[in-house]
Specification:
Blueprint (H helix, E strand, L loop, with lengths): L5 H24 L8 H40 L6 H39 L2 H7 L4 H39 L4 H11 L2 H27 L4 H35 L2
Helix pairs in contact: 1-5, 1-7, 2-3, 2-5, 3-5, 3-6, 3-7, 3-8, 5-6, 5-7, 7-8
Length: 259
């Protein structure tokens, strides 16, 4: 591992932030410019959306079940076991559903984007695209950004529903609660601010996952070892950013929505 001075290290990180910002801005700008490569967007939507669907649904289902099971112990002490549906509903829709879906998609697709684009860098396919007059940003990055943002939004909706079903299974089978009262309680406790917050986060998380994965892929250096390093960094960075940005997005939306 090459040793560098602290000043050079800071410069490298600042340059990386600048390069990432430029990539993110160009990716958004290319959405409104021709050509739009709808075929690539559809292909990426299939890979990202349908490929991640079983994992997201399973993660949200068992998380909802675990949330209901763990909360039942505390609620029983206060004689409020019937509020399990409200707790699971708010927890899944407002926070756990978007974050879980984002983390699963980040682990599966950020690594895929980084490895795929990194391999294209190593084999000089990106240079060949430029030589043929094709913009790699518009051809490779923008379709992945649009597909990830769109599909993560719908994955979160399905994940929320499966999380509520998981809570219902535990509530009805293990806790002996009536299924109708569970769904009635879960539905009535939700407000517009809860649903809006839960559906706004996937748009931000999807943008982070796709841009980070593409950035590390296009920044690959050092042959096949560089591809592996970029893949790891893409997954770690995207997951950390999702967890960190979630705090700020939650606080911002709470201020805007008044709670």
């Amino acid at each position: 591992m090459e040793l560098i001075s602290p000043a050079d290290y800071v410069k490298q990180k600042l340059q990386s932030v600048q390069e990432y910002a430029v990539l993110a801005v160009r990716a958004v700008g290319n959405v409104f410019a021709r050509p739009r490569y709808f075929g690539d967007m559809t292909q990426q939507a299939d890979l990202i959306g349908f490929g991640s669907l079983p994992i997201v649904l399973a993660a949200c289902f068992f998380t909802g079940a675990a949330l209901a099971l763990n909360s039942a112990t505390t609620l029983t002490r206060f004689g409020a076991l019937t509020l399990v549906g409200q707790l699971v509903s708010i927890g899944i829709v407002r926070e756990l559903g978007p974050v879980l879906a984002g983390l699963v998609v980040a682990g599966r697709n950020a690594s895929g984007m980084a490895s795929e684009l990194g391999s294209m860098i190593v084999t000089e396919q990106i240079d060949a695209m430029r030589a043929l007059g094709t913009d790699p940003m518009k051809k490779l990055v923008t379709p992945r950004v649009v597909a990830t943002v769109t599909m993560l939004f719908f994955l979160t909706i399905l994940g929320d529903f499966l999380g509520l079903i998981g809570g219902n299974v535990v509530a009805s089978v293990l806790l002996g609660l009536d299924s109708r009262s569970y769904w009635s309680s879960a539905w009535q406790t939700l407000q517009f601010s809860d649903v809006f917050m839960g559906l706004a986060k996937p748009l931000v998380f999807g943008f982070i996952i796709s841009t980070v994965g593409c950035y590390y892929g296009l920044s690959t250096r050092g042959g096949t070892q560089g591809v592996g390093r970029s893949t790891t960094e893409a997954v770690v960075t995207s997951m950390i950013l999702i967890i960190a940005v979630d705090v700020f997005v939650t606080r911002l939306l709470m201020i805007l929505l008044g709670g």
